[in-house]
Amino acid sequence: MGYPTKVQLIARKKGADQYYINFPTAVAEAMDLQKGETIEWFVEDKANIIAHRPAVPPNPVTVKKNLRRS
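^ thats the sequence. predicted structure below, dont judge the formating
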């Protein structure tokens, strides 16, 4: 399931316009984003952008995976 988000534009009389995309709370909480973090944006193509988080905090819980073969 995706989270629809509208792009906001702040058009300034002097200076460059700015576009904003907000993370929905559910996405920010799932990623454990913190106020002031840096996110790098990459344009994959005209339909996709990638948000990269250069500094990722460690997971609070280590999950061990058991792979069983029949």
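The beta strands are 8-10, 18-20, 40-45, 48-52.
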